């Protein structure tokens, strides 16, 4: 017997086995009262369901003597729901149980839905079903598992595997298994890390590290030029278990680019200790961080390369089409999901009342966060003046894949774009410098395109303000020179050898760095803010990637809230400037219509103007960041433009009022003339008619002349 991954060639045999297992299941009795007809329909239903699990989930079977005798089907519930709704609707044709799924699974993408387990009749009660469920638990320990069980006899199996019964109805029992990964502690002072046996440790760590050969169950090595692990129910592989420190762990994370990986805590055989292992999410090999371009850069920038940071670049934006954004990415990314969940948690608990249906108005219900996928970015040296017309800039390091998250306001059309790079594979100061210069390039199919051009062309996303950076450097403040931090706060390339512009000596920044804690409110970290950046540093910020995400999401949430406001201000300012530039082309009534639209659209963003935080420390943090980012200056510029707009509004309103008055006067004159029609008929009354007409015309002309003089005097 052997466990095999089900392929499309196996569809008919697995569908046949499934129809035999579920033909008398109460859930499927409605298909037909005739067993043969019901079996045929079941086979067709399962054929499609199995194909869905092959393409988008987990599909394994046990084979004996060339025939499948058991199978298991599962998938990530919310990933299928959000990314493949047509396939989801095939598996869940009725929404009868949606409230139950929402109650227990919610929006989490960390739930596997155990769709079906089947065992051939001759092999039942031999532990086949238990083996397959246990294999899923052991292979995918990062996931919770949810299922509905229609066979009461199988409940004992699930209870033995630590599933809990949630509730039941007339058709089935709903059960759940909760992952224990986040409750496992790993010693990060003396780290054990499992790596593929063929990996070149000298290339990653700068030295050869000999380890212990171990066997990993349910893990497969993809032997590429950059070997990596993937999860597999039917595999085992040898690996190298090495002892490293935290700085070396960051080196490894940067080398593999953890954006595409899941960090797992794997139990050491014959011990209660756990070691770390990184498994690839999408089974795709990525370019190495340490390529030829990086080696060339490091010959001059080795000092800065030793500083590894989690980097978030947040940009206020305007978007056009929410449907386009939602359809942009079908990939599932474990760490991105955790960032999204952490930001959603902050949204719910940092402000207002965290109870459903009690505080469901305001900015909370307006924010939607969407993963747009990953892009490959390249940074270059700063363009220099070239009088021969040839650009002279060189690559800085290798291209690096980063994640894109967009947080949008569903009522207005503003939002915030986050560029995510965990254990960033770029020189930090060069990266920040490129962000400020708007010189980040995106590489797609060999073509190079400016980031903002790429965003507008692919997502209809437009930059509406200054990009802001948030860095976490997990080092003690005293180990980082002021001159390096000064370059980061100035968002300038760090010249440690005095080349280029030299070292930053700005008095304001030097004074800021003279305080060891900076803007920190607690003594575990040092926090500095300046213009377009928030930077925190401390050894206490070391942790697993999940622990880092939880901590970093707090500040990232504050930045996001402020950039929602900046986006709204800049969108309104942009509309005002565009309107004023074309003022002469508008009629008075059109002017009023446009002004009403601008003011109305901006007023929709009132929920972001002064969000009340639950914690005094949160309020102070937001106030500090607001001051550093100079949001009030933007607001004052908008206020000035708005006053100009309102003055025009009042003026044009007067024009319309006067015109309406003139129209009424003319109408009155017409009625007067009509009332004198009797005079027109009589010849002897014509002199009186001429005099009356002259008087009415004179009054209208005099009225318009008086209005024009008053209007000119007002404009002076």
Major sheet description: 10 strands, mixed
Radius of gyration: 34 Å
Q: Tell the overall outline.
A: globular
Percent of residues in helices comes to 40-55%
Which strand-content bin applies to the residues?
15-25%
Spans with pLDDT under 50 lasting ≥5 residues? 666-682
Which whole number gives the mean pLDDT?
84
By DSSP, the count of extended strands is 22
- The total tally of domains equals 4
Work out the helix count.
23
Report how far the terminal alpha carbons are from each other: 95 Å
Account of the 3D structure:
- This protein is an alpha+beta fold and 716 residues long.
- It has four domains: 2-176, Gcn5-related N-acetyltransferase (GNAT) (Aminopeptidase), CATH 3.40.630; 183-280, Hypothetical upf0131 protein ytfp, CATH 3.10.490; 294-561, no CATH class; 651-715.
- It is built from 23 helices and 22 strands.
- Strands 13, 14, 15, 16, 17, 18, 19, 20, 21 and 22 form a ten-stranded mixed sheet that branches. A seven-stranded mixed sheet has the order 1-2-3-4-5-7-6, sandwiched between helices.
- A hairpin with a 2-residue loop joins strand 17 and strand 18 (447-450).
- Helix 1 (11-22) packs across helix 2, helix 18 (545-581) packs antiparallel against helix 19 (588-603) and helix 19 packs antiparallel against helix 21 (631-675).
- The longest helix is centred in the last third of the chain and has 45 residues, at 631-675.
- The protein is globular.
